[in-house]
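At this stage, I put together one protein's amino acid sequence and its C-alpha cells, which the following lines show:
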Amino acid sequence: MIRTIKVQLCPNNKQRTKFFKNAGVARFAYNWALSYQKQNYDSGGKFLSDCELRRIFTELKRYPNYTWLCNYSNDIAKQAIKDACIAYKNFFSGKSKFPKFKSKKKSKPSFYMDNVKIKFTGTHVKLEKISDSRKSNRKVLNWIRLAERDRVPVDSHYSNPRITFDGLNWWISVGIEYPDSSTTPVNDGIGIDIGVKDLAICSDGNTYKNINKSKKVRKLVKKKRRLQRRVSKKFLKNKRGERYCKTSNITKSQEQLLRVSRKLTNIRHNYMHQVTTEIVNREPKFIVLEDLNVSGMMKNRHLAKAIQEQSFYEFYRQIEYKAKWHNIELITADRYYPSSKLCSCCGSIKKDLTLRDRIYVCDVCGFTIDRDYQASINLRNYAQSNIVA
C-alpha cells in the first residue's frame, strides 16, 4: 500500500521566492496545455496526448520569448501538462466539469518535483534547480529544512512529490510504499453513529465529544469573527468610488485572520485523526457507518453551520483508508435504514420520533435508551445480519 506523508517546509527568503516562481511555471504550463487542447478541439482535431503536448512545449523553449522556461526544472512543466490532459479527459468521460484556467490570485500555488532526483535526510530535503549556480556554496540552497525531524523515511522509493502553499506555509507531500497488513482483526464489530451533539457514538460504549463545543475552539471562533469584522470595516473605510483600495494594514489583518482560521482547522483535523485512529486501533472485525444525506441536511438553516463544522465527509474518508490499512471491513448502511427509530430490544419502529427526542422510549415494550447509542447498536446489528445472510 502507498501512504502519503505531508511535512511542513522551512525555506529561507531565496528558496521561498524560487518556490513561487516554480508554481508560476506549473500554472503557465497547465493553462498553455488546456488552451492548446481547446483550440485543437475547436478546429476539429483529435485529442492530443500529454506526450505530444510535451514535445510541442519543449520546442516552444527555442523561441526568445520562452527561453526563461529553461531556468526551471523540466519536470514541473511536464507534470502540469499531464494534469491538464487528465482533467480535460475526465470532462469528456463525464467524471468532472470542464477544467478552469488557473488564476494567480485564486488558484493554490503548487508544483511537482521529480521522484528520482528528490532526496531526504532526517532534517532536510533536496530539490532540483532551486539554485542554478554550479558553485558549492550556492548549491546549499537546494537543501530545504523540514519542520519535523525524521518524519520521512530515508532511502525509500517516493511517488508523486508535490510542494504546495496554503497561504501561510509551504508543504511537501510524498507517497511511500509500505507492506500490506497480513493480520486479520478478530474483535467484535463496531457500529458508529455520527451526529451534531457528539461527533461519534460507538456501539461498544465509547463516545467522542464535539470538539467545536470546547472552550478553546469557541474562543478561536469568537476571535475569528472579530477579525472578519475588522477586515470588512477596513475595506469599507478605504473604498474609492466603486473600487476597494487594499492597504498594507488590510494585508496584515488578512494574514492574522488566515492564521486564526488555519489554527482552527488544524485543531479540528487533529481531533478527527485522533478519534479515527483510536477506533481503528481497537481492531474490530467490521465498522458500520450510515450513508447520510449531508447535502440534504445542510438545507436546514438551523443545523447547517454545526453540520459543516463536524466535517462528516472527512470522518468517512479517514475511517475508509485507515480501515483498509488494518484489513477491517467497512460496511455502509442504507440511507433509509431506520437506525434511530428502530427499537434494539423488540424491533418495533417508532415513526413519530423527532430530532428533539434525545431519549428513546419504545411504545411497545417500554425500553428506554439514549437515541444515538441505540442507533449505533442497530448499525452493528445491521452488519451482523447482512454478514450471516
